[in-house]
Amino acid sequence: MRIAISALRRLVAGLRARGRQLGLAALGLTGLVGSAMAEPQLEKSEIRYQGWAGQVTFIELADDLGYLAPLKLKWVGNTISGPQDIQTVVTGDIDIGGAFYGAIIKLIAAKAPIKAVVGYYGSDDNTYSGYYVKEDSPIKTARDLIGKKVAVNTLGAHHEFVLREYLARNGLTPAEAKQVTLVAIPPVTGEQALRQGQVELSTLGGVLRDKALERGGIRRLFADTDVFGNFTGGAYVLRDKFIKDNPNTSRKLIEGVSRAIDWAQTTPPEEVRARFERVIAERKRNEDATPIKYWRSTGVATKGGVIGDAELQVWIDWLVRDGLLKQDQLKPSDLYTNAFNYFRPGKTAEAK
What we know:
By secondary structure, this protein is an alpha/beta fold. The protein contains 13 helices and ten strands. The chain folds into three domains: 1-38; 46-124 and 230-351, D-Maltodextrin-Binding Protein, domain 2; 129-228, Periplasmic binding protein-like II (D-Maltodextrin-Binding Protein, domain 2), CATH 3.40.190.10.
């Protein structure tokens, strides 16, 4: 009996020891799994950017949705110009900025070390830029614009490229197109400049367009969607050096921005507007939030702003035709990467 009891005690002790070993092994395995699943260490903790008065950028939306944490944003001021925004990226004064694809291509062609990383704006049936004349204007066709002044928000960007493509498609020669004078003015004064006769054609979009139409007395000559259909018009860019030095931060930032774009694409517009209004109220920048009431869609043509060759090729071709690029000087793959987009092909089920 004593032998049996002794053997039983040894068996129990052995089982306890084995259990402790299994427990430790399990803990070790859990630690390894946890370590493997832990987010890579971010090289930078703060992202500098420029905002737009009365608007919530997708960078800011990503932050508000919690998609950027633990990254922090540092607002350094506002801009009204995409080319200025990405030039500020090139100089290193901000980390991320966005502009029209044509402006990005021209900057890269000039050896600027940047990459487009996520499409962030565009035009569709709800969100577009219209080109307006006064109701009683004699301007009915593209040819009628010869010798006239056109208001755009900035030179070398979306509004200029669309106008020049409209002129070319309607038969104006390059020499005739040069007789259409572009005047860069703040968007908020575009309607006033048109009504006061300072320009004969003005580009209007969003709230500025809708409020001007409510007041009456103007009519649309054409819109960017009449020329190009629904399209993503521009992208956020990062410096090549920023990407090289901060790969984990770049991924965290752009995955967050692309998720924010998708959120705005798939969330009812009234819910998006409510969040935008709250963000503007809470950041206390002494700005008018009225434009938010007119927000309808992102205008971005692809899920989460994934970039494709076609949306860049159209502008490469245009710049080649205009003599600003040489044939085969650049190809789309030179200009962008989807490597950091949350919806990049193969990354998630949503991307399929």
